[in-house]
Specification:
Elements lengths: L15 H11 L18 E17 L11 H7 L3 E9 L3 E6 L12 H18 L4 E6 L4 E7 L2 H17 L12 H11 L5 E6 L6 H13 L1 E8 L1 H4 L6 E5 L4 E5 L3 H25 L2 E6 L4 H9 L9
Parallel strand pairs: 3-4, 3-6, 6-7, 7-10
Antiparallel strand pairs: 1-2, 4-5, 8-9
Length: 315
């Protein structure tokens, strides 16, 4: 939290200055999810609750109990039947960005998944703030986490960005020989932190997505708007060209023969099955799913989903 915005550009560490600059691109995400609000709070999103608000919806015949101050006297005079104006109230919806920066994210053939995940998280936070929402975040490392409470404030987003950088930098350090956090634990913590009506973005590679994760996600989807940001690298989809490669986990080194056809097929099928399971489950929950190839610019993927030219917005 003490580093300046002009941090050094280390390819393995998410840049604070780069994440701050994403606020400009986030302004173009005008289609950022608009869903039915579930809280009786003032804000910038439409809901199906009706009453006196900022957005005029329709004129209909006056019904007993309607506010007489909402009578449309012009239509009433024309039709000789009392009519009243109906307004759609605006509601607030907090945005919670959950960032997975565990050891599996410290991988990439061109850019590290961890750095890409930080940029996605920062862009989503800026987009939420631009939509006049309260924004908060959860950042998870191998063995601990950081929380940023939801606030409608640039300081909240900047605090979140500094946490993202700190956790991405910690990936350079050796992990103690202890049990690491699971995705199921991350989602369980998210349930404790999120409020009803929250829009939740889970930014992860989902490498350990299992039935326990599904259970927690079911509960999250019951009370909020759930979205998955699946970060992956091209090498995870298909092994590199046939050859002998030296691979290491940081402690041991082995030779990998990518010319083995059965190995190539098994490797590709494993990624395809994980991706299909996540896609099928997101459809089951009516959750958003955005795949992010670590080699592609983050804002181009977000612009396709939420940019001005997006044809179909979520409702």
């Amino acid at each position: 939290m003490t580093q300046n915005l002009d941090d050094n550009d280390h390819p393995a560490i998410a840049s604070v200055s780069a994440m701050v600059k994403l606020r400009y691109g986030a302004r173009e995400l005008t289609g950022f999810p608009r869903i039915q609000a579930r809280q009786m709070m003032a804000g910038g999103h439409r809901s199906r609750f009706r009453g006196r608000g900022m957005d005029f919806e329709e004129v209909r015949i006056y019904q007993p109990g309607d506010d007489v101050r909402s009578i449309d006297w012009r239509v009433t005079a024309k039709t000789q039947v009392p009519h009243t104006k109906i307004f759609r109230e605006e509601r607030e919806r907090p945005v919670l960005v959950v960032s997975d920066l565990r050891s599996s994210m410290f991988f990439g053939s061109q850019r590290l998944k961890s750095v890409v995940a930080c940029e996605i998280s920062a862009a989503l936070a800026w987009a939420g703030l631009n939509a006049n929402d309260r924004v908060g975040g959860l950042v998870f490392g191998a063995q601990h986490q950081a929380e940023v409470k939801s606030r409608r404030s640039h300081h909240a987003v900047l605090q979140f960005i500094h946490e993202l950088q700190d956790f991405s930098q910690q990936l350079l350090e050796p992990v103690a020989d202890q049990q690491q956090l699971s995705l199921a634990h991350i989602l369980e913590e998210t349930r404790r932190f999120s409020l009803p009506g929250t829009t939740i973005f889970v930014v992860s590679d989902f490498h350990d997505f299992d039935q326990e994760c599904e259970r927690h996600l079911f509960e999250l989807a019951r009370h909020g708007n759930l979205n998955f940001c699946h970060v992956y690298d091209s090498i995870e989809t298909e092994l590199p060209e046939p050859a002998l490669y030296a691979v290491s986990d940081g402690e041991h080194q082995r030779l990998l023969d990518t010319g083995n056809s059965s190995l190539r097929e098994e490797f590709a099928n494993a990624f395809a099955e994980r991706s299909q399971r996540l896609q099928k489950f997101s459809q089951q929950l009516s959750a958003g799913l955005l795949p992010f190839n670590s080699a592609d610019p983050v804002m181009s993927t977000l612009a396709q989903a939420y940019g001005k030219r997006r044809k179909g917005r979520r409702s």
